[in-house]
Known about the structure:
The complex is a heterotrimer of chains A (931), B (170) and C (78). Chain A has 931 residues and is an alpha/beta fold. Chain A is 29% helix and 16% strand. Chain B is of the alpha+beta class and 170 residues long. Chain B starts with 13 loop residues before the first helix and ends with a helix. Chain A binds chain C through residues 334, 363-364, 496, 543-544, 547, 588-589, 596, 598, 616-621, 623-624, 627-628, 631, 633, 793, 795, 797, 899, 901, 903-906, and chain C through 4, 6-7, 10, 13-14, 16-17, 19-21, 33, 36-42, 77.
Amino acid sequence: MPLVKERDLGTRAVSGSPSVELEIDGMAVAVPEGTSVMRAAALAGIGVPKLCATDSLAAFGSCRLCLVEIEGVRGTPASCTTPVAPGMKVSTQTPRLERLRRNVMELYISDHPLDCLTCAANGDCELQDMAGAVGLREVRYGQAGQSHLGEVKDTTNPYFAFDPAKCIVCSRCVRACEETQGTFALTITGRGFGSRVAPGPAGNFFDSECVSCGACVQACPTDALEEKSVIDMGVPDRSVLTTCAYCGVGCSFRAELRGDEVVRMVPSKSGQANEGHSCVKGRFAWGYATHRERVVKPMIREAITDPWREVSWEEAIGYAGSRLREIQATYGVASIGGITSSRCTNEEVFVVQKMVRAAFGNNNVDTCARVCHSPTGFGLSQTFGTSAGTQDFASVAEADVIMVVGANPSEAHPVFASRMKRRLREGARLVVVDPRRIDLVRAPHIEASHHLQLQPGSNVALINAMAHVVVTEGLVDRDFVSERCEMDDFAVWEKFISTDINSPEATEPITGVPAGEVRAAARLYAGAPNAAIYYGLGVTEHSQGSTMVMGLANLAMATGNIGRVGVGVNPLRGQNNVQGSCDMGSFPHEFSGYRHVSDDTVRHVFEELWGRTLDPEPGLRIPNMFDAAIEGTFRALFVQGEDIAQSDPNVNHVKAALESLELCIVQDLFLNETASFAHVFLPGTSFLEKDGTFTNAERRINRVRPVMAPRNGKQEWQVVCELSSAMGYPMQYDNASRIMDEIAATTPTFAGVSFRKLDELGSLQWPCNEAAPLGTPTMHVGTFVRGKGRFLETPFVPTEERASRRYPLILTTGRILTQYNVGAQTRRTGNVAWHPEDVLEIHPHDAEDRGISDGDWVTVTSRVGQTELRCRLSPRVPVGVVYTTFHHPVSGANVVTTEHSDWATNCPEYKVTAVEVRALRAPASALHRGA
Amino acid sequence: MSEVAPGTSSEFSEERVRAVLDAHRSERGGLLPVLHDIQGELGCIDERAVAMVACDLNLSQAEVFGVVSFYPDFRASPSGASVIRICRAEACQSMGAEALARHATESLGVGLGDTTADGSITLEQVFCLGNCALSPAVMVNEKLVGRVDSERFDALVARARARASGEPQP
Amino acid sequence: MPLRNDLVQMANQIAANFLHHGPEVAASEVAAHLKRFWAPPMRAELLANLDDGRLDPIVVRAGELLRELESAGSNSAS
C-alpha cells in the first residue's frame, strides 16, 4: 500500500446539514452553518495555504497565511477563523493575496534554518510545502540578525526530539496538548521574537507534565517535534491501516514503513475509536515486535528442567498433538484444556475454542477475561441480556454527569480519558468512586464534584447506598422503569434497596464514605439529563464483582440512564480484545455470542458445521483448571498468549499447578514466566503481523492488517489449525476472513460482519446483522436485549479477605500509563524510562508508623506470600490502603494476592489483599533477588 | 507597578505562598493577582511556587509558567537588591539610550537581564516608561528618573549599592 | 478423601450470595448456578461429599436439588 496521507481540512467539522451556500473561486459550495471558509474551500477541493490551522484543533488565526478576499468585506480575513455566510463570494488566490502570503512566508523563513536537504522532515514538512505553495523565491532579510538557530535540541523523551530552531511558534503543539490530549503540558514562554514552545518549568520534555501521547508531534507542521525513528530511518514510504494491540480502546493507526521496517505508528483520523488521537503505548511502544528476545522458532523439551531444543514446525506440532492424545487416552477426555488470549484476534481465539470443543472434545476452554471482566459478562447479561458496554465512546460527549467507578482511564485507557476530559472541560460533572485519588479526581481544568473514596471491598455497600437514595428520595424514573423493566423484579428490588441497612448512614461504617457525600453524588447522578457510568477492574476484581456490576445496572435502569446516547453502563476493557475473546465463545459454558453450551439448538448449529458431537456441560474455568491440576485430574494445557504465571493471583499456587502438568504448550512471542513450565513453545505473531480483527470496549470490530510478514513464518490461527489436525480433527481455512465468515454464520450478533464490509466501512459495532446492517453504536434502545430490563437484589456479602492485626493494611493493584499489564511488551521498549520498576504507594501516616521513608525497600506480606518493593509515600492512597502495579515480574505483586474470587465467576479478587508492610533492613537483598 | 520590592526576602516559603493563595481563594481568574502577590512577598516566582499555584488553581504548571514568562516583570529567580531598568524605546534611543545601555553593561559587568555578582543590582531593559519628554529614562526600583547620562547613572548605582549594603542581605 | 478446599469455599460463597432469597429459594438458585457454571467433575465431587461438615446447609440442600436436576437432565438428554 502506498503512503497514505490523511487530508487536513484545516478546521474542525461542524455537524448539521449543508445549509449554507456560497461561492469560492467561482465554485458553488454548500456546508453546514458554522463551517469555516477554509474548510468549505477544502471540501470544494481548494487548498488555502495554512500553517497554524489543522482540522483536529480549534481555529487559531495566527499564521496569517490563509488570508482570503471576500466580496464586500474589507481587508483580507483569515479563512480559518471566518465562518461561511449565505451568498458569500470568496477568492482564495489573487495577486494581493499572493503578495501578502509570500511576505508572511518570507518572514517565517528568515528565522528558519535552510537545511531542508538534511532535515528529517524533508518531504514531510508543511512549512516546506507552503513555501512552495506561495511561490517563495527569495528571503530579503537574510539570517544575520538575532535568530533561534543556535538553540539546544531537547532529546530527553525516548521517542521524539524537540528542536526549537525548527519551531515556527504556530502553537499547534500547545493546542494539541490542551484540546486533544487535555494535559496542558506545553506553553509558549516569553513574548514577541523571544516566544518559544516549552514543556513547562521543567525545561525538558521528560521531566515535564508531558505524557508522551504524541499529539504534539502529530500536530507539528515542521521538524521541530519529530519522531526519533524518522530522524534515524528517514521518511516512510508506505503505510498500512491497522489497530493497536494495547488496551480496550482499540485505536486505529497507520503503520508507516520503509521496506518491512516500521518507521512510526500514526493515529488515524478515520479510526472511529480514537479519531486521530493516541497514547504513549500505541504511538511509540511497538518496538517489542522486533525485540531480540522474541522467539521465532518452535521449541520442545521432555521436562521443564531440560534445555529447549529448536525443532521444525512439523515436529513441534506433531509432538504436541500426539502428547495431548496420549494424555487423554490415559486420563480421560476432560484431562486437557486450553486458555485463549485477549491479546489475540477474534479469529485466533475462535479457532482455539473450536479446537478445544471439537478436537479436545470437551469445554475446558477459558480466557484471560476470566481474571478481569468475567463479572461484567455475568452481571450485564443477567440484567440487560448481553455482556457488553452499552455505548460507543463518542457517547461520552453527550453525558452531563459521568460516574467513573474503579477505573483509572488516564492511566489505563488514555485515549478515551482524553475524550472524557474534553467533556468535563465543557462542563459535565464527575463522580469518582475509587479508594485511590486518581488523576481524574483533580487534574488541570478538571475536578470531580464528588470523590467517594471507599474502602476496598465495599463497592456493593456503596452502590446500594446510592440506589437507596434514588429510591427513597423519589428519584426513580418511574416511566422508564414501568415501560422498560420487569415490574415484579423491580418491586422486589425496590423493597430490598429501601431497607435501612442500605442507607448511606448505615453503610458509612463499611464504606468509610460520609453519608452526605453519597447522598449528594446519588442526587447528582439521578438528576442529570444524561448520566453515564464507566467502570473498570475496580468493580469486577472483587469477591462481589458480579453483584457490583448488577448494582451499577440497577442504578442505571432505576434512573432511566440506558438506551440512548450520553448514558449507559460501560466496562472499560483492559486488553485490546477482551470484548472479542469473550464474544468468540471462549468461556467454558458459552459458545460465541454468549449462548450456553447446554442450549441444544445452538449446539446443533456447531455440531452440524463442525461434524462432531459437542459436550453440553460446562468445562473448567482457569482457577478450576489449576485446582484440578494440583489434584491430578487435569494434565495438559494449551496457553495462547497469556502469562498466567505472572498475571494470575497467588502465583505460587499457579506455578504449583503448572509444575504438576504433564504437558504445557505455550504460544507466545517471548519466553515468559509461564514458558518456564512449558514443554512445547509455539512462537506467535505480534499485532504487526496478524491478520484479523480486534473488538474494543465499545463492541467495535476493527481490522488488524498484517504490516509485515510473520517473523515465525505462520499466522497463529494456522498453527492452531495444524495442531488440531495433528490430533485427528482437521481444521483448515484459506485465510483469516474465512474464519470470520464462520463466526458470522454461527453467531447471530455477528451475522452481518465480514472482512469485506469492515474494509468498506472502517469498523462495525456488534450486533451487526439483518436488523442492524451497519452495526449498533448504542444498545438497548427501545427494548433491552433480554426484552425487559431485570432488577436484581444485590446484598452486600463482604469478602473473607479482611484486614487483621497481623495484616492490617489492604493492598489494591492497578496500572500505570507507560506500562501494560505484565509488561511483556512495554518492558521491551523505551517506556521503561518512565516506570523502571513497580513501587508500593503507602500513605505517609502508615509509613511513619512503620518507620518507612520515601524510597525505602519494604516487604509486603499477605497470608499467601511475600514480596519486596520500593515504596513511595503518597497521599493518593488513604490511610490503611497500599497500592501497587503489576507490570514487572521481579516485583511479583501477584505473589501476595490471594485465591479469593468473585462468587459467580471466579474472577480473582486482585483488588483486596490484607497485607503487612515492613521496612526492609537490608535493602541489598532486594537488589540481589533472583530474576 | 513594579513587582520587585527591594529588601523582601527571596527565600522560598511554602507558608507564604499558601497564605497568598488563601487570600485569593474566593476570586475567579485569580492567577495574575496571585502571581503579583507572590512576587511581592518573595521577590520572585520560582518553580516551587509555580507548582503550588498550578495545583491550587487547578492549572498545569506549564500554563502558570507560560504566564510568568510572558510578563517581564515576573521573575523566576530573585532580583538583586535593586533593579535598574533602562528604557530602550524610540524616544530614548534618539537621546542616547543605546550608549547609556552600553555604559551600564560595561560598568556593571553584566548583561541586560542579569544581576551583579554582589547581588546589589539587576540590570534590565524596558521599552518605554512613558517618560519620553525626559529621555533617556531609567527606573530604579519604583522610582522614575529622567535625562540619565553615564554620570547620573553611576550616581544612581552608587546610591542603590549604598542602600543595599546598609541593609542586611537576605 | 475430603472435599477440596476450593470447592467448599466456592460453594459456600455462592450460597452466601443467594441467602437473601431465604433458604429454600436460595438452595434452588445455588443448584441452578452450579448446574450452569460448574464442570461435571466439580459437581460430582461436591455431590459425593455433601456430608463434608464444612458445607453451608444451603449448599447441602442445593446438592440434593442438583442431584434431582442431574438425573432429570440425564433422562431428558439424548
